[in-house]
Amino acid sequence: MKTRNYHIIFILLLFVGFSCFGCARQDNSNSAPGTVTEVQEESDDVLDMLLSDDLFDDDFTSDRGYHDPWEPLNRVVFEFNDTLYYWVLNPLNKAYTAALPWDLRYSIGNFVNNIAAPVRLVNNLLQWKIADAGVVLSRFLINSTLGVYGFGDPALMEFGLEPKPEDFGQTLGVWGVGEGIYLCLPVLGPLTVRGTAGFAADAFAHPMVYFIDSLWVSGEYYALSRVNLLSLNPDVYEELKKYSLDPYVSMRQAYLDYRRTLTNDNVLLQRSDNRL
Amino acid sequence: MNMLRSLSTSLLLIFLCGFTVLASPGPTEVLKPTLQEMIDVIGDPALAGIEQKASRRKKIMNIAAKGFNFAEMSKLVLGRTWKKIDQQQRTDFEQLFTKLLQNAYVGKLEGYAGQKIEYKAERIKGKKAAVSTLLKNPGSPPLPVNYLMINADGGWRVYDINIEGVSLLRNYREQFRSILRKDKFEGLIKVIEEKNESFENEDFR
C-alpha cells in the first residue's frame, strides 16, 4: 500500500515533468539560432562574477563572510571526521578502488545520479527553472533507455545535455532563506543549517527511499554511493589537508564558496555529477 | 613612383610593428606564454626527477614571475595586517608566501602530465581582468580554472586563481586570519615555514 502511493507520486512527477519538457522544447527552439551567443553570454557572466570579488577591500565581511558560532564544537567533529576518513573511509575506498575498474565505478556513479533525477527535477521546478527541468527529464529518459538503466551518459555524450544539479538547499537559497550557521556534522561533513534542511528534504524526493522500505538499507545505499563518489575523486580531501595551514578553515571557506556559487549561478562550475 | 610607394608601405609596416611592441600585452597575451613555458619546463624530461627539483622549480618560478604578481598576492592575502607590519616583515612574508604558492600551485601542476589549457574568454574591468580557461587532462573531466589579473607595476599579472567558485587567495586569507587571531604575525610565519618544510622531500616528476 505504502509503496503504491509512492509510485503514484512518482508517476505524477513524471507527468508534471512531461508538460515542462514541452515548455523547454519551445524555449530551446526560440533561442536555437543563437546558441553561440548563449555560450558567450554565459562566459561573460562568469567573468563578471569573478571580477566582482572583494579581495581588495580590507574588511570584507558582508555576504562573503561566514557565521560559525559553534566553531569549537565543529572543530572537534572535524577531527573526528578526519580520523574516520583515515581509519575507515580511506581503507574502504582503497579496497573498493582495487576491486572495481574506473570505468565500472564511473558507470555506477552515472547510475546513482540518474536515479536521483527526481530530486533535481523537483528542485529545478521549485526554482522555476523550467527549461532546466526539461533538460533533467530529457537526460533521465535518454540515459534510462539508451544509457542502459542510466549506467551510461549518452545524454551528455551524444546530445550535449549537461546535468542541471539542483538540491533543496539551493532552492531555499533561491527563495531567500539565509544559510544559517555553519555546521560540521559527524560523517556528513561540512553543511550549513540550510544545507542540512535541504539534505533532509531531498531524501523525500529520492526514489530509493520509496523502493527500499528499510531506513538501514537506504543508509547503506547512500554510504555506498558516497564511497563510489570518493573513489572517483580520491585526492580531494588529502590535497586540501596538504595545501592548507588550517584545514578546518580551508574546508569551511571552500564549502561556502562552492555552495554560494552553486546557489547563485552554476556558470563557474563544470557540470559533472561525478565530481565531489 | 613605384619605389616611393613600396618605401612608404614598408615604413608603415615598420611603424605598425613598432606600435604592437610598444602597446603592452593584454591579460591573455601575458598568461598564455607564461603558463605554456611553465608546462614546457614541467614536461621537460631533462629536468625530471627529485635531484632536479630545485633547479626545475627555480626555472619555473622565474617564468612565473612574469605572469604572477606575488607582491600583490602577499599584500591581499594579509588584508589589514599588511598595514601593521614593517618593510622587513613584508619582504620576509612575501618570500615565504611565494614559496607556499610555489609548493601548492606548481606542485599541483607537476602532478598533471600532458595537460592542455584551453583559453575561453577574457574580460577587462578597469585595472582588473578575468581570464577563463579549461584545464584538460587525459582521462579526467576538464577543470575550469579562472585567473584574475591586475594591471599594476607595468603589466597584467595574476593575483588570484579561482577554481569552481573557490578562490585560492580568499581561502588562504581566511586561514591566515584565523591563525593571526590566535598566534599573531610571528605565529603565522612559523606555521608557513613549517608547511613549506613539509614539501621539501616530495616530488611528482
Quick description:
Chain A has 276 residues and is mainly alpha-helical.
SSE topology sketch:
The complex is a heterodimer of chains A (276) and B (205).
Chain A: H1 2-30, H2 35-51, H3 71-99, H4 102-115, H5 117-126, H6 130-145, H7 154-157, H8 168-174, E1 182-185, E2 189-192, H9 193-205, H10 207-211, H11 215-232, H12 236-243, H13 247-264
Antiparallel strand pairs in A: 1-2
Helix pairs in contact in A: 1-6, 3-11, 4-11, 5-6, 8-9, 8-13
Chain B: H1 2-22, H2 27-43, H3 53-67, H4 70-78, H5 81-84, H6 87-111, E1 116-125, E2 128-136, E3 143-151, E4 156-163, E5 166-167, H7 168-198
Antiparallel strand pairs in B: 1-2, 2-3, 3-4, 4-5
Characterize the structure shown.
The complex is a heterodimer of chains A (276) and B (205). Chain A has one domain (2-26, 65-275). Chain A contains 13 helices and two strands; from the N terminus they run ααααααααββααααα. Chain A has helices spanning 2-30, 35-51, 71-99, 102-115, 117-126, 130-145, 154-157, 168-174, 193-205, 207-211, 215-232, 236-243, 247-264; strands spanning 182-185, 189-192. Chain A has a two-stranded antiparallel ribbon. In chain A, β1 (182-185) and β2 (189-192) form a beta hairpin. In chain A, α4 crosses α11 (215-232), α5 (117-126) runs antiparallel to α6 (130-145) and α8 (168-174) packs across α13 (247-264). Chain B is of the alpha+beta class. Chain B has one domain (24-200): Tgt2/MlaC (Nuclear Transport Factor 2, Chain: A, Roll), CATH 3.10.450. Helix content of chain B is 60%, strand content 19%. Chain B contains seven helices and five strands. The longest helix of chain B has 31 residues, at 168-198. The mean pLDDT of chain B is 85. At the A-B interface, α2 and α13 of A face α6, β1, β2, β3 and β4 of B.
